[in-house]
Amino acid sequence: MKKVKWVMGFLLVLLFFVFGTTGRMAASAQDTNTGKSMVYQAETVHSTENGSRPEENMTVELEIITTKEQIQKEPETVIEPAMATESAAETANQDVQQSGVVFIGDSRTEAFVMNAGLKNIRAFTDIGMTVESVFTKESVNLNGRKVTVMEALKQTDFERVYIMLGINETGWVYDEVFIQKYREMLDAILEINPNADIYVQSILPVSEKVSDNHPYITNERINRYNELIREMASEKGICYLDVAEIMRDEKGALPEDAAPDGIHVKKEYCLRWLEYLQNHS
């Protein structure tokens, strides 16, 4: 009897050893199919060194990481119309967004740069900026200190400059003062870099609601200023970009859905703006 018990005990130990080893091999094979990255492997080792149980970490990883077979079976992503618009703007982004490009403007340009995802360009913008304040107001943070736009340009290597200013000046009494200050600004830029390509953009319209109720910002006034800017650009041989033409509805106003406040356009329209710049400059 003792010999029988001893033999049965030995067989049980042998079976346990054989099946245990097979199970670990299967688990190892399954783990190989997960295609775990080295990052996840490093995280597992790190957790083990801190006293965590490696088996628990491995369970979490297997739930998170997709197997190679699953990756191969995943369908291709279908681009929706809204995504297609953004994709087209990304192509424009590649040309407009490069070193040597500077954008000068008020809060509208500030919002445009952010919503269009421009990162490599220089944006000299400020809320309430005008063709006069570019000379006088220290609004640009450059190398840890505030300087004027003109001073910032003197310390910047640039090849192209995009300008949109004028909406804040619609409250000025004399049109002649506005356009004269605009000329002085362009002359100052060309004095800093005579070879720079300058693009002056038309002032975007505002919504009909804003135009009817604001004390001085009206589409009639904006149209008048745009005509002055166009004439000035023609006289000086500078490129005029009529961005406003893609922002007007049938009444000549900014569409009501284009901007929550009727002035600062949202991302969808900023991407149209970006695409326009790419196609016309």
3D structure, described in words:
It is a single chain. The longest helix has 32 residues, at 2-33. Helix 2 (38-49) packs antiparallel against helix 3, helix 5 crosses helix 12 and helix 9 packs across helix 11 (219-236). The chain has 3 domains: 1-25; 34-75; 83-280, Rossmann fold, CATH 3.40.50. By secondary structure, it is of the alpha/beta class. Helices cover 54% and strands 10% of the residues. It has helices at residues 2-33, 38-49, 54-64, 68-73, 81-96, 107-115, 133-136, 149-154, 175-192, 208-213, 219-236, 267-280, and strands at 101-105, 122-125, 140-142, 145-147, 160-164, 197-201, 239-241. The strands form 2 sheets. A 5-stranded parallel β-sheet has the order 2-1-5-6-7, sandwiched between helices.
Summarize the structure.
This protein has about 280 residues and is of the alpha/beta class. The protein folds into 3 domains: about 1-25; about 35-75; about 85-280, SGNH hydrolase (Rossmann fold), CATH 3.40.50.1110. It is built from 12 helices and 7 strands.
Assembly type of the chains comes to single chain
| Helix proportion range | 40-55%
Strand neighbour order, sheet with most strands: 2-1-5-6-7
Average pLDDT over all residues: 78
Gap from first CA to last CA: 99 Å
Biggest β-sheet strands, sense, barrel:
5 strands, parallel
Topology (elements, then pairings):
Blueprint lengths: L1 H32 L4 H12 L4 H11 L3 H6 L7 H16 L4 E5 L1 H9 L6 E4 L7 H4 L3 E3 L2 E3 L1 H6 L5 E5 L10 H18 L4 E5 L6 H6 L5 H18 L2 E3 L25 H14 L1
Parallel strand pairs: 1-2, 1-5, 5-6, 6-7
Antiparallel strand pairs: 3-4
